[in-house]
Amino acid sequence: MFSTVFLDLPPLVHAAGAVTLPGSKSISNRVLLLAAMSEGTTTIHDLLDSDDTRVMLIALRTLGCLVEESGTTVRITGLAGKLPNGSAKLFLGNAGTAMRPLTAALAVVAGDFELSGVPRMHERPIGDLVDALRQLGCAIDYLGNDGFPPLKLGKPALKLDAPIKVRGDVSSQFLTALLMALPLVATKDIVIEVVGELISRPYIEITLNLLARFGVQVQPDEWQRFTIPAGAKLRSPGDIHVEADASSASYFIALGAISTAADGQNGIKVQGVGADSIQGDIRFMEAAQAMGAKIDSGPNWLHIQRGAWPLKAIDLDCNHIPDAAMTLAVMALYADGTTTLRNIASWRVKETDRIAAMATELRKLGASVVEGADFIQVTPPASLQGWKPASIHTYDDHRVAMCFSLAAFNPARVQLRIEDPKCVAKTFPDYFETLFSVASSATSSIPVICVDGPTASGKGTLAAVLAEKLGYHFLDSGSLYRITGLAATRAGIPLDIANEAAIVALLNTLPIHFEGSHIWLGNEDVSELIRTEEAGMNASKVSAFPAVRSALIDLQRNFRQLPGLVADGRDMGTVIFPEAALKVYLTASAACRAERRLKQLISKGIPATLDSLRADLEARDARDSSRTVAPLKPAQDALLLDNSELTVDTSVQTVLDWWQSKQPF
Ligand SMILES: O=C(O)C1=C[C@@H](OP(=O)(O)O)[C@@H](O)[C@H](O)C1
Ligand SMILES: C=C(OP(=O)(O)O)C(=O)O
């Protein structure tokens, strides 16, 4: 997951390949609650692991349910409606699929419970559900504003005679919550009547489908009346598989529709969900097809290719696909006219006011947008000049972050920034990693920041922190020379120029790979081994051999991957990435560098003296800057930073400010 303050997306050009998507949020949280309330043990396969399912899992454990996790397989020992912990305070984040169904389930059993969430959850309505539960005799108090969480639930005095009326026009989750909870108390037939239009109907179908898997056959009547038969009992089906999330699939369906494939590849394959999905959002396929996408599907897979281009503008009632419809609003940027998405009033009470949010952010990119109480109308920029680089505010709404990433394919190649990218954790923590696994940019548009400088200048620390803050890859080029020195020494090859060819031959066979700050040689983590003074000296020797340097060029350039790279070394800006957008040459006085090195060695229990360290350091500077190939020197366009008197934080901030000043936002 990208936990950075923002994530800059360079212009994306192609996309092709296969993605396996995480489990459906709606199925995961329903199955977790049903399994916990039912009789018997349920093994859930391919459960979604995200913020919304985490809060549900923690809640179930807090209530005394046995939950055993092993990767994405979770085993739940059902409580058969009897809670060992009759009093609990539950924090449910911003998960509607946890807050609403748990409210109903806990309100009908005896106990004292408090349910709360993030501030936005306390602005998301729950009054219609509370009103319905109060008709049943449930004791519910509002702890904050009337009609909204947090809630306090007490002991109910159940009255099951009259039909329970629930409004269906604000959220379908209220009806879902009642349908899942009432089998716990169905000593007689219980009838639920929907008042007003029922929105987001396909989610009720998911609920009915899963209730049937847990042994409860609800009798629906025209979407207006639902009867839970007397004696209904939740019984575990044993094993249950969670399909991949169809709403998450919408971003990759859109990706297939708007991108072209690089040579020899064709389209995007989505694995884990197919056209026969039980999730209503799979019907996003039809909308994408209407806009021009070519889609094939089979059991649990979809294959999407670009068809009509530009996309065709559509006018669609999106009530049945409220979540995936946000993706259509961004696809509209690539359409041949004005796209209108209707009947989406519920957008206003979700993770944020989504109609307002989409309108504001689409306008930033240059689109013309008209918004109404329950619709949005999007007209793309009229020409290439109409597109504007934009920093997309994401309002702690996963779907805003995910759908706007698709704007990185804009034909004007304007840059895009996604603020707070970690908000995708609600349903798809690795969304951006998944996107980068299939999307590609022209190499020249993948940003590189070079940090060059002499030994012990702190460039490794600075570069690693920069990479972390920007969410970029990190290349510690010096480590490649250190590994070469280590491997040659181990192979008994003396490190002198006469053995250059042998060292290159060896280098070409080395299985080097990086994992964060760890460097591996085959199965051996050599991160520590290559940090000794001796390894540094050996690195300096082999790095002076021209054939070794050129053998490492391609390897280093291959680190330039989406979304960007911070590379530290001695010739990053001069030789390896001469066209880098920002080059920093980091220095510090010899005295200061020797002192830092001394502290470092002492902390590792390695004896050393200041004088000898300073002498070694100066000798190394002299050798590095006088070698004929790629001598250590600042690139002509490098910005110099002397950090003798600076803290790491100040140096990092200085470079981040330089970087920011080069961005169009
Ligand atoms: O029941 C569900 O799993 C959901 C129902 C929908 O909400 P509304 O019924 O409030 O539209 C949807 O937006 C939400 O993401 C999940
Ligand atoms: C509306 C959404 O979430 P929730 O389940 O919290 O309602 C969503 O995921 O788009």
UniProtKB/TrEMBL annotation:
<feature type="binding site">
    <location>
        <position position="30"/>
    </location>
    <ligand>
        <name>3-phosphoshikimate</name>
    </ligand>
</feature>
<feature type="binding site">
    <location>
        <position position="350"/>
    </location>
    <ligand>
        <name>3-phosphoshikimate</name>
    </ligand>
</feature>
<feature type="binding site">
    <location>
        <position position="399"/>
    </location>
    <ligand>
        <name>phosphoenolpyruvate</name>
    </ligand>
</feature>
<dbReference type="Pfam" id="PF00275">
    <property type="entry name" value="EPSP_synthase"/>
</dbReference>
<feature type="binding site">
    <location>
        <position position="173"/>
    </location>
    <ligand>
        <name>3-phosphoshikimate</name>
    </ligand>
</feature>
<keyword id="KW-0057">Aromatic amino acid biosynthesis</keyword>
<keyword id="KW-0963">Cytoplasm</keyword>
<feature type="binding site">
    <location>
        <position position="200"/>
    </location>
    <ligand>
        <name>3-phosphoshikimate</name>
    </ligand>
</feature>
<feature type="binding site">
    <location>
        <position position="426"/>
    </location>
    <ligand>
        <name>phosphoenolpyruvate</name>
    </ligand>
</feature>
<feature type="active site" description="Proton acceptor">
    <location>
        <position position="323"/>
    </location>
</feature>
<feature type="binding site">
    <location>
        <position position="96"/>
    </location>
    <ligand>
        <name>phosphoenolpyruvate</name>
    </ligand>
</feature>
<keyword id="KW-0808">Transferase</keyword>
<feature type="domain" description="Enolpyruvate transferase">
    <location>
        <begin position="16"/>
        <end position="435"/>
    </location>
</feature>
<keyword id="KW-0547">Nucleotide-binding</keyword>
<feature type="binding site">
    <location>
        <position position="25"/>
    </location>
    <ligand>
        <name>3-phosphoshikimate</name>
    </ligand>
</feature>
<keyword id="KW-0028">Amino-acid biosynthesis</keyword>
<feature type="binding site">
    <location>
        <position position="323"/>
    </location>
    <ligand>
        <name>3-phosphoshikimate</name>
    </ligand>
</feature>
<dbReference type="GO" id="GO:0003866">
    <property type="term" value="F:3-phosphoshikimate 1-carboxyvinyltransferase activity"/>
</dbReference>
<dbReference type="InterPro" id="IPR023193">
    <property type="entry name" value="EPSP_synthase_CS"/>
</dbReference>
<feature type="binding site">
    <location>
        <position position="171"/>
    </location>
    <ligand>
        <name>3-phosphoshikimate</name>
    </ligand>
</feature>
<feature type="binding site">
    <location>
        <position position="26"/>
    </location>
    <ligand>
        <name>3-phosphoshikimate</name>
    </ligand>
</feature>
<dbReference type="InterPro" id="IPR013792">
    <property type="entry name" value="RNA3'P_cycl/enolpyr_Trfase_a/b"/>
</dbReference>
<protein>
    <recommendedName>
        <fullName>Multifunctional fusion protein</fullName>
        <ecNumber>2.5.1.19</ecNumber>
        <ecNumber>2.7.4.25</ecNumber>
    </recommendedName>
</protein>
<comment type="similarity">
    <text>Belongs to the cytidylate kinase family. Type 1 subfamily.</text>
</comment>
<dbReference type="Pfam" id="PF02224">
    <property type="entry name" value="Cytidylate_kin"/>
</dbReference>
<feature type="binding site">
    <location>
        <position position="25"/>
    </location>
    <ligand>
        <name>phosphoenolpyruvate</name>
    </ligand>
</feature>
<feature type="binding site">
    <location>
        <position position="124"/>
    </location>
    <ligand>
        <name>phosphoenolpyruvate</name>
    </ligand>
</feature>
<dbReference type="InterPro" id="IPR001986">
    <property type="entry name" value="Enolpyruvate_Tfrase_dom"/>
</dbReference>
<comment type="similarity">
    <text>Belongs to the EPSP synthase family.</text>
</comment>
<comment type="subunit">
    <text>Monomer.</text>
</comment>
<dbReference type="InterPro" id="IPR036968">
    <property type="entry name" value="Enolpyruvate_Tfrase_sf"/>
</dbReference>
<dbReference type="InterPro" id="IPR003136">
    <property type="entry name" value="Cytidylate_kin"/>
</dbReference>
<dbReference type="GO" id="GO:0016301">
    <property type="term" value="F:kinase activity"/>
</dbReference>
<dbReference type="InterPro" id="IPR006264">
    <property type="entry name" value="EPSP_synthase"/>
</dbReference>
<comment type="function">
    <text>Catalyzes the transfer of the enolpyruvyl moiety of phosphoenolpyruvate (PEP) to the 5-hydroxyl of shikimate-3-phosphate (S3P) to produce enolpyruvyl shikimate-3-phosphate and inorganic phosphate.</text>
</comment>
<feature type="binding site">
    <location>
        <position position="172"/>
    </location>
    <ligand>
        <name>3-phosphoshikimate</name>
    </ligand>
</feature>
<dbReference type="InterPro" id="IPR027417">
    <property type="entry name" value="P-loop_NTPase"/>
</dbReference>
<feature type="domain" description="Cytidylate kinase">
    <location>
        <begin position="449"/>
        <end position="657"/>
    </location>
</feature>
<feature type="binding site">
    <location>
        <position position="354"/>
    </location>
    <ligand>
        <name>phosphoenolpyruvate</name>
    </ligand>
</feature>
<comment type="pathway">
    <text>Metabolic intermediate biosynthesis; chorismate biosynthesis; chorismate from D-erythrose 4-phosphate and phosphoenolpyruvate: step 6/7.</text>
</comment>
<keyword id="KW-0418">Kinase</keyword>
<dbReference type="InterPro" id="IPR011994">
    <property type="entry name" value="Cytidylate_kinase_dom"/>
</dbReference>
